[in-house]
């Protein structure tokens, strides 16, 4: 429940701090005195967007702070999900700086407006006059039925399944789109893959073939170089190996005289062996070198095929072609894979749809089972409110479409008087009747959903006399199990409160200021008497006020 509210530098309020109790709290004041400012300030605490124009003094910051006792609300999980520090006595603070920047805090931890809005849904329900139109909303009507039927867990299961169903639908649509696109490209990709596969490409093959081609294309030149090199090394009289052999023999003799020449001899021996090996390889290459025009042509054809594929695919190596071949292979095979995946998702979708239909049918059955009782309870609540012959006929139609809250479409039909035909609520109920119906609905919601705090902003508009007294009694009874605020102009309602605040506006030094004051018993008598008789308070009005309070 809301235990404390402080407002600084907001609209007409310079500073005020108010403590609240549970049960029914009344707020009264002249039209324009600033009662709505309290609601707007609370709206900021609950995540409403800030307006710089609301600063009373544009050079100072605005601070609105609300204290809530949430011991029995079981909000630990919500605080954890919102990454907030939980406290039984939670403080929500909103600051608007002169720069226009807005900041929000929960228990002195900075947070976002979205978090405030989510938290606010569990703290206060502010009912303004225009929200009576919610009665015309199918979503609101179904929500009332679900709260009455205790469908919370069932509805949660349905919505989780609906989320899965939509996810599988999206997956299926995406896969079918991919399948359609792949089918369009399938023939061309298969052709490209076959072309690359026929080329029988191997990594490093291009460099090897290019080397072989150069040799075969220049076989005479290569043979001449090999022959000349071999002759220089191996000529019996003047060849390098012959001369090196002579040098080696002389150094060998030196090594026999002194060991210090042994190293020179070993180096010459190694050089001689290496040159002999080179000479042998030159001879072997020379013997193997044969002009082969046919092999040259085959190599040339292979290379031209490689070059054409590289140009076609805009690459410069066989390794890149092999990557393209692998990619094409996956795409071609992927068409079959997509088909398998589509089948798998279709099975999941079919199962989820079955589960979803079962949950929707359960919701429909539970809703249908409480319609008569819900109608009767609303009728009984509004009978003493000047609507003794009002009747409701709540109808559910089971649709073929999965909606956000089931497959039900709802029609609330209403008849306000005897002999009057049923018609849609929004077309047959007057504004005053809608206010009374909404109070009855809020009373039911409050008992069933355990709302902590409800603020009624002139929900009694359009009624008076005994009806107003009965509406006040309903709010008083609601205050026995939750915190109720009622902003009212009716003395019958004002007299029902456990706590009564008055909002007053006055001018001081050309500045208009609103204040809010907790009234004592005598002040309450004066305020209610003024509500009864106007500015001139009569003795009769004072007596009537005392009677109302007693």
Automatic annotation (TrEMBL):
The UniProt entry, under Pfam families, shows: SMC_N
Q: Does the keyword DNA repair apply?
A: yes
Judging by the UniProt lineage, the source's domain of life is Bacteria
InterPro entries from the entry?
Answer: DNA_recomb/repair_RecN, P-loop_NTPase, RecF/RecN/SMC_N
Which molecular-function annotations from GO does this UniProt entry contain?
ATP binding
What's in the keyword line of the UniProt record? ATP-binding, Coiled coil, DNA damage, DNA repair, Nucleotide-binding
One BP term from GO: DNA recombination
Report which residue ranges the record marks as coiled coil. Answer: 158-185, 265-292, 335-362
What Gene3D superfamilies does this protein map onto?
P-loop containing nucleotide triphosphate hydrolases
Keyword check for Repeat: no
Give the CC-aspect GO terms.
bacterial nucleoid
Q: Where is the RecF/RecN/SMC N-terminal domain?
A: 2-508
* Its job: May be involved in recombinational repair of damaged DNA.
Return the similarity comment: Belongs to the RecN family.
The entry's protein name is: DNA repair protein RecN
* Protein's organism: Paenimyroides baculatum
